[in-house]
């Protein structure tokens, strides 16, 4: 077909899009997986504990697909005493909102012994992952990688010879059930800092590979007979370019990654191409993913440390370490130099410099120039009858027993709070000080958004309960990407929108708000469904730090009855 014969430039452009969609669909495949989720014994950091695994694996199996493919996962719950769901982080679930994997929002939790079919299309290439989204099952180890390659015949806008996948997480020796009880207790019992950081599910507790550089050996850490916690060495050939796909599924920790003696060039963020820029290290927050290019142009007769350290919190957790090992050098030969030093945990200027260096690649979709609705979300730490909570505009989110998708679709108005949460907060609120009235309320109301409108969200950080304390919060939006228009210090005010980047803002699905600051986002509400928007720190969401966006639910097609076979919707399914 000759698109030029179609006439005007706009029609030619439409013709090209149609042909590209046909091309993708013709080469697309349906990829089937049968998974069983269960507790099992494991030793992620060389200390045996119960972990949550899939088909006997921790982390779960990596899904690899191509853009346009359909993924089908038959998920069987073998946990015996608790429900389970899996969220496909970064996948927009266009026309399949019931497959988003959010308990009480898009579906009922899968009961013990039951099987639920997740069927959805991965429409865009990128670095993604999946994780549990019920209770705090992500903290228990329910996660894995989801990599979407370019469709056949398509190419990335950068070259590389090979790639590695790095899934980063944090690990506690205390069970998630004990953590949950502590968070919901009065007096409050915080979960504490993680015992270990994991790279692809492997870490070393109370053992530093780098303890004695010249005399150290990996056997110091007692990996023999316990290879499942031994670090996965990145074996490389000299003078090649490698793509490192990096994703963070941490429950709490913000992280920094560095490779001794090697620069990295950032080329992808949350499945979207960005203008390439070089860094010595990168900060990555929970819910984010990146691709970086690494050139192996150093001395091939040496090995080099790969280090992961904690940012944004006073670290009580040792660095996670592994090796970049050149092919001419045995992996058992440890470097004689110190690993990269993680920037000081509260050096936020370092964090902001990296975050503000991310711009969309030329040719990426641009945001609408104006918005239809602005929602300003104030993040505060509060108390509710003596219990510590997180709240948004003084409402701490509590999820209903009936999934929103079903209750809105079938008009079950008594299934959740019908009063919408506020679009703003009291302008007299001083974000730099603890609130004079620290009490909050609970609610399950939703923000009803008109389909196909443009929404600005301003995330406003504030002082927590303790004086001079404001924490980093990475916020993740389900069902959409958003443009990150800008960041600011202090309270967002009229006129700050003049600083917005409308030329080349990056498209992301997760964005951070820094202490005592604000972050401005813009998205188009063009995906019918009910979508969570929440802090990706697991205990913060558990304590109420999130909101619900609903849009065009009347346009949602037939919902699988298994998704809604609970609560008030159980009797509404045919």
TrEMBL record:
It is an enzyme of class 1 (oxidoreductase). Its EC number is 1.10.3.3. One of its GO terms (molecular function) is L-ascorbate oxidase activity. Residues 37-150, 163-327, 433-551 form the Plastocyanin-like domain. Pathway: Cofactor degradation; L-ascorbate degradation. CDD domains: CuRO_1_AAO, CuRO_3_AAO. Coiled coil: none annotated. Gene3D superfamilies: Cupredoxins - blue copper proteins. GO terms for cellular component: extracellular region; plasmodesma. One of its GO terms (biological process) is response to virus. It is found in: Secreted. Pfam families: Cu-oxidase, Cu-oxidase_2, Cu-oxidase_3. Residues 1-27 form the signal peptide. Keywords: Copper, Disulfide bond, Glycoprotein, Metal-binding, Oxidoreductase, Repeat, Secreted, Signal. It catalyses: 4 L-ascorbate + O2 = 4 monodehydro-L-ascorbate radical + 2 H2O. Its cofactor is Cu cation. Belongs to the multicopper oxidase family. Dimer. May be involved in a redox system involving ascorbic acid. This is L-ascorbate oxidase. The lineage of its organism: Eukaryota, Viridiplantae, Streptophyta, Embryophyta, Tracheophyta.
């Amino acid at each position: 077909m000759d698109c030029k014969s179609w006439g005007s430039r706009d029609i030619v452009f439409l013709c090209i899009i149609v042909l590209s969609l046909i091309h993708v669909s013709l080469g697309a495949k349906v990829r089937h997986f049968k998974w069983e989720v269960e507790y099992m014994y494991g030793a992620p950091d060389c200390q045996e504990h119960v972990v949550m695994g899939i088909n006997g694996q921790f982390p779960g199996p990596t899904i690899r697909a191509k853009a346009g493919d359909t993924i089908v996962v038959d998920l069987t719950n073998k946990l015996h005493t608790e429900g389970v769901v899996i969220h496909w982080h970064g996948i927009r679930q266009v026309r399949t909102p019931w497959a988003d994997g959010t308990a009480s929002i898009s579906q009922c939790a899968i009961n013990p012994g039951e099987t639920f079919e997740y069927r959805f299309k991965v429409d865009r290439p990128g670095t993604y992952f999946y994780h549990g989204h019920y209770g705090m099952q992500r903290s228990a180890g329910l996660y894995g990688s989801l990599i979407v390659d370019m469709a056949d015949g398509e190419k990335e806008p950068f070259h590389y010879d090979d790639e590695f996948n790095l899934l980063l997480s944090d690990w506690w020796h205390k069970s998630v059930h004990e953590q949950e009880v502590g968070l919901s207790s009065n007096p409050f019992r915080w979960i504490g800092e993680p015992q270990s950081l994991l790279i692809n599910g492997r870490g070393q507790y109370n053992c530093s590979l780098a303890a004695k550089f010249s005399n150290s050996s990996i056997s110091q850490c007692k990996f023999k007979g316990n290879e499942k916690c031994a670090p996965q060495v990145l074996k490389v050939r000299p003078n090649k370019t490698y793509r490192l796909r990096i994703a963070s599924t941490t429950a709490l920790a913000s992280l920094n990654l560095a490779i001794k003696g090697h620069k990295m060039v950032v080329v992808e963020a949350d499945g979207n191409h960005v203008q390439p820029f070089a860094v010595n290290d990168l900060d990555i927050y929970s819910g984010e993913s990146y691709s970086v290019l690494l050139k192996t142009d150093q001395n091939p007769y040496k090995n080099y440390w790969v280090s992961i350290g904690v940012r944004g919190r006073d670290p009580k957790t040792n660095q996670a370490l592994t090796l970049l090992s050149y092919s001419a050098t045995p992996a058992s030969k440890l470097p004689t130099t110190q690993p990269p030093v993680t920037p000081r945990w509260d050096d936020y200027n370092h964090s902001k410099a990296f975050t503000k260096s991310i711009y969309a690649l030329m040719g990426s979709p641009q945001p609408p120039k104006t918005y239809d609705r602005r929602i300003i979300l104030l993040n505060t730490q509060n108390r509710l009858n003596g219990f510590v909570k997180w709240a948004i505009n003084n409402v701490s989110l509590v999820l209903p027993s009936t999934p929103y998708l079903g209750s809105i679709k079938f008009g079950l108005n008594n299934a959740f709070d019908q009063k919408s949460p506020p679009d703003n907060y009291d302008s007299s609120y001083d974000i730099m000080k603890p609130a004079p009235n620290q009490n909050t309320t609970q609610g399950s109301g939703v923000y009803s958004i008109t389909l196909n409108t443009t929404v600005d969200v301003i995330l406003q950080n504030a002082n927590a309960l303790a004086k001079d304390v404001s924490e980093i919060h990475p916020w993740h939006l389900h069902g959409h990407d958003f443009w990150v228009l800008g960041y600011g210090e202090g309270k967002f005010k009229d006129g700050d929108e003049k600083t917005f980047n409308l030329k080349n803002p990056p498209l992301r699905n997760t964005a951070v708000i820094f202490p005592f600051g604000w972050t401005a986002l813009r998205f188009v509400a063009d995906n019918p469904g009910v979508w969570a928007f929440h802090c990706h720190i697991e205990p913060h969401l558990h304590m109420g730090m999130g909101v619900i966006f609903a849009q065009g639910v009347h346009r949602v097609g037939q919902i699988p009855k298994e998704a809604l076979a609970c609560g008030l919707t159980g009797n509404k399914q045919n």
